[in-house]
Amino acid sequence: MANRLNQEKSPYLLQHGENPVDWYPWCADAFQKAVREDKPVFLSIGYSTCHWCHVMAHECFEDREVADLLNRQFISIKVDREERPDIDAVYMSACQAVTGSGGWPLTIFMTPEQKPFFAGTYFPKHGGYGRLGLMELLERVAELWKHDREALLNAGNQISAAINHVKTAGGREPDRKLAERAFAQLAGRFDHQWGGFGEAPKFPTPHNLLFLMRYASAMQEPNALKMAQTTLEDMARGGIHDHIGGGFSRYSTDEMWLVPHFEKMLYDNALLLITYAKAFQYTKRECFADVANRTARYILRELTGEEGGCYCGQDADSGGVEGKYYVFTPEEGKQVLGEADGGEFCRLYDITQSGNFEGKSIPNRIRSFEEGWSREDPRLKKLYDYRLNRAKLHKDDKILLSWNAWTMIGLARAGVALGEEVYLNAAVRIQSFIESRMTDDDNRLYLRYRDGEAAHGGQLEDYAVYALALLELYRATFDAGYLKEAVRRAKQMMELFEDRETGGYFMTASDGEKLIARPKETYDGAIPSGNSAAAMVLQSLAALTGEREWQAAADRQMRFLAENIGEYPSASCFGILAMMDAVYPHRELVCTHKSGLPRELEAYLKEHPAEDLCVLLKTAGNAELLAGLAPFTRDYPIAAEGPVYYLCENGACKAPVTDFRQLKL
């Protein structure tokens, strides 16, 4: 039986399009019907590559008995959290307020006025072992709605008030103590044996590692770099890293990075690509370059569409079995590669008769001290092709703007650091795709594109991370057109999202759909928050342009973040990274050269992360455009021959030099 979801574009909603549940997408019609029929609303939020979303779907939403009860007593709404992160943020905050935790699938009961009165995550059809079942929960809520509705309405009002609590305006000056406290907190949770932080499950959280590398450089703190290196090494050796096809799974269910939750997400791999590329620049270790190359190739091979945009991710399940696509037996290895090469594969990658995951083996190199096979080894290609034909992975092929922007950053950074022009070209293609397919007639951004349709107004993350990506493309190419576009998107970000009364940036635009709350997130979870990305954009533009309006905007945002990060700054490491540009020594370099980027500067930027160095290139071709963006550059002459370098450090400008070596960077 088809329902309304069959007409949607979201792969997650389409997965539920044949459910016997009379689903609505999020729309006014659903809430109007709830009012007319005097029924509570059942809201289910998830995403198409979520394992437990699949489990609950099979147990509950494909079940006729559950569907009959839902259809009789409730108005049921399905939401793809990746398409509507604003709705997810509102009701996830409600779940966290009620239960102290959250996750997906997210299960919400609410009034027709969208006020939540009960929240949870996964529910089986029937309860047991202390867990409430969905059938019992539905019956209980339906009974309360009829006979004790006042209690539910009161709960809805209280939860709505809690998630709408607004701090008074204020803020505090950012200082180095925030970064020092963040480092101390990460050090206190660091796993010295296996890398990472805390106990299982372990998440890569790449922005924490980026912070540690930057902190190590700024503070000359070797332990910070060691923590980042150890974590990157151990993740790369573990089963969370796909040794056959490249890329990383979502997280590890154990402390040693062996058994992953097998879904692969674009944003994880984009952020890890940035991190491994920077780790290579910081350490010059080829193992980090190798992982960055494998990750970039995975993104380009499996997650990139024909037009250049990148898809969301791949499922954990194959044929309804989690991890089936990835595991091997010794017999399979020998069948594909022959006795000798198959035996070597099993020895190098821990493929054993007893297995390490449900009787089979996840390839890993945790206990192997020999070198693994190179990414060009034809034996890996044979295993990869065999795996492709043995089982299929569902791919969520919608294109999300903010995730593609992170991918632009990763590919551009890797293109420079690894000397791979193909990666930089791919980043440029994503940018062209966004401008041609995900921008409306008023130059506003869309959040999602799929199957020829762009939809949903862009949110804070879309504008902030896209502006960051444009700045990264400028750093990689020194095409001032990217800087101009970054300025435009940052101005839109300020106009549409900034809260001038209490500080920070809202998640949704001022003219966007009005929900029961307007979220303003500062916590850097799996992805850095929009507010952290906004701070990075504003501080970068202040340094690049020298314009007071950008510095004033950056200062406002830094004070907001410093106030809201609170006593646990390690939960906002990307925001701390943005602050480090303001509170740690920083240098600005203007290079004038009539014929483009000098080779010696290009080589330096390839070899070094140069995160404390802001570079502008002025040429005869871009002088007028650059002067409009960074007016102070108008007074910098271009010599008839050769480059001239103007370096400023900590607010003091040095004498210009023509020999790059004299800069002593």
Verbal overview:
- The chain has 24 helices and 19 strands.
- The chain is 49% helix and 11% strand.
- Helix 4 (64-73) runs parallel beside helix 6, helix 9 (206-219) packs parallel to helix 22 (573-583) and helix 11 (266-283) runs antiparallel to helix 12.
- A 5-stranded mixed beta sheet has the order 1-3-2-4-5, sandwiched between helices. A 4-stranded mixed beta sheet has the order 17-16-18-19, covered by helices on one side.
- It has 665 residues and is an alpha+beta fold.
- The relative contact order is 0.08.
Give the structure's gist in a few sentences.
The protein is 49% helix and 11% strand.
Key words describing this protein structure:
24 helices
